[in-house]
Amino acid sequence: MSISAPPLPPPTALSRKFGLRAAFEYTGVPLSLFEKRPKLPSRNWLIFLTVSSSLLGYYVYDRRECKLIRQDYIDRVRPLSEEPMGKFELPRKVVVYGAKWPGDEDWDRGTRYFRKYIKPILVAAAVDYKIVAGKRHGDLATRVANDIKDQRRIDAGLDRPWESPMPLPSKLSPEAERHRQLEGGIILIGRPTFKEYMAGFCRGWTESLERVDYEEILSRELQNDGKFDEPDVDEPPSPVGDIDEEPLPTPSRLPPSRRFSPLGVMRDNARIPPQTSLTALNVGTSSAGADIVPPIEIPPQPPLLLVPFVNLVGWRLIPRLIWDFFNERHKVKAGAEAGYKLIKNQTRPFVSPGRTPNENLSFSPNMELPRNSQDDLEFDRVAETYYPPSTSKILARIAEAREEYYRTALEKLKTARVLARREREPTADELKNPPPTEVEIHDERLKKEVRWRGEEMGWNVVKPDVPVHWDPRMDGIFKVFKDPDLPLPKFSSGA
Amino acid sequence: MSFFGGSRNGGGLNNERIEAAMHEMEMITDVFNRMVSSCHAKCVNTRYADAELSKGESVCVDRCIGKYFEANKLVGETLNSTAQAAGGGGMGSSPMGM
Fold first, then answer.
1. Could you name the domain of life of the organism this protein comes from (chain B) (predicted)?
2. Contacts of A301 (CB under 8 A, 6+ apart)
């Protein structure tokens, strides 16, 4: 009898059945999975992975650095905000100006830069701020000029400062208010803002104190320029009594743009505060302030923080935009350093230009003067090279729009006059959508002219070939925040 | 208008007006309470390490209150204009009764 032993399985198969591999195999995991040999992905995959991971890594690194830099500066200034503050004390307050950047539809780019990069440091240091932004070129200059003129009127006793109907214990005296302003500071974001601020400042301290309604003057000028006059006037337009209700406007029909101002009432019983001898002498001579001469000396001003700022607009700057996107930390560092300078409150005198006085402030395009590169009026001049090329045509575009408007407006005006005199019946379409009346056309023209002239004036202040306004009286009144003497935080050496 | 004395001459209290005044008062109180609680939650550190507010807290509270009123005013104006556009004549006042 022979016992036939069952054939033994090959030793390799036996060994396979042991261990983890066997366990996986019996649970249905395919064997091929264990036999997979690692190998490099294909060339294209390698390229894709390398590029995308480098970009992602660089982005993450940049944002991490941003956080660290910001946090570092915040930690530096935080002790200031932890000081206790009495009930009637007021914090330091700065004014932030941001003008429109030429060629950008978004008017608030400058103030957005402030909010993103400088504000966190100010908030951490408990410095209060007020943002003033200009929506069009020239808005900021007008605002600054008007603020200064308002203050001058108050100082000259022509107006009374606003008083709360309820006496508040926290209300500061004018002197204390002035002192607080001087201790605060002014932040100017970028070259256009600087130019507009200086232009407004010059205007504010040079122009007459008379309250002028520019719209009223303009409307009078527009009436007299004869552009909307009828070519052959058969009859005077005013004595048309038979035309019952239809508006046939004469100049007086224009809606008055002047509003009632309580200032005029206040002016009558204005009291004269103790002032400089120059203004005090002039107070009695005119209640309107038209003949008050501009002061010979301008009082000291709050220190300026000049923040370099470039807004990248246009196709040609897209590579730079991409570079900026991955290098946000430079902007964060610049903004944080600017905020830190302001908080440390160390100042140096404004380096004024050594050039001939320019009192007329004319806007001749060829007024390029030799400048010292250390001159503070040269602040951030390089930013002007970033204006989009289309900005050189701003004035031409306005002129074109004006011409186009007058061409269509004259047509409309003709229709309006014919209809107003009932020389013909309105068509069915005109009955459904009544065409504008002459009053409306005049009103529209005034609005458009106000806008165009404002933009022209503003651009003539901001455009690159016009120097910053300067007046010899401004010598020595400005100060500029400088880098603190103390060592800067560790990130200042370069991120 | 005096809340309680002024309308006696007209023959008794004007209940409607008192109702309206009470309603307005409630709205003001409500807005005020909401404002205080949200600005407190935003600005004031609840560790209360000091009896006085710190500088940072004061500035924060100041700006918070300013923003709250501003937002409230905007909402009120929008509500009013919506109500007027709907033809109802509106509530005639902002949520704060201002």
1. Eukaryota
2. A182, A186, A477, A478, A479
Q: What is the pTM (predicted TM-score) of this model?
A: 0.76
The residue of chain B nearest to residue A123, with distances taken between CA atoms, is: B56
Q: Do A126 and B56 touch (CB under 8 A)?
A: yes
pLDDT in tens, B46-57: 888 888 889 999
Given a contact cutoff of 8 angstroms between Cβ atoms, the answer to whether A488 and A341 are in contact is no
Contact A131/B at CB under 8 A: no
- Nearest-Cα residue of chain A relative to residue B64: A128
Digit-coded pLDDT (tens) for A238-255: 444 444 444 444 444 444
| CA-only gyration radius of chain A, Å | 35
Per-residue model confidence (pLDDT) at position A452: 93
Ordered domains of chain B (ranges, CATH) = 15-85 (1.10.287.810)
Report chain B residues whose CB lies below 8 A from the CB of A91.
Answer: 55, 58-59, 62
Whether B50 and chain A come into contact, CB under 8 Å, resolves to: yes
Q: Residues 6 or more apart from A110 whose CB is under 8 A from it? A: A97, A98, A99, A100, A101, A133, A189, A190, A192, A193, A309, A311
Residue A134: closest CA among A107, A106, A115, A94: A107
- AA letter at B78: T
Nearest to A86 among B52, B56, B60 (CB): B52
Work out the average pLDDT over B60-78.
94
List, for residues A90-148, the tens digit of each pLDDT value.
Answer: 899 999 999 999 999 899 999 999 999 999 999 999 999 999 999 999 999 999 999 99
CB contact under 8 A, A126 and B63: no
